[in-house]
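Appendix C reproduces, verbatim, an entry submitted by the partner laboratory led by Prof. M.T., so that reviewers can inspect both the input and the predicted structure.
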Amino acid sequence: MIWRKKTVLEILTEINQEDHKVAAAVQNTIPEIEKLVTGIVERMRRGGGRLFFTLVPGQAAGLVYLTPRRYHPLSVCPTPM
């Protein structure tokens, strides 16, 4: 594969296209996200903690709940490539 320099417009357009994938991926998994967040809220009411959500378009999405002493991976959902 031959690499070439891209224009600023090309780079910004590609970034924008990738951003659109994030919204679609989140929309498709809202029911699962709702279940996870509901469970996390219940846990937080019993002792606190922090919630982190990550999404890598085309790879995976995950939720992690952190308490002062523990790391609790709650879910990792592979997304279609």
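The chain has one domain: 8-78. Additional entries are available on request from the coordinating office.
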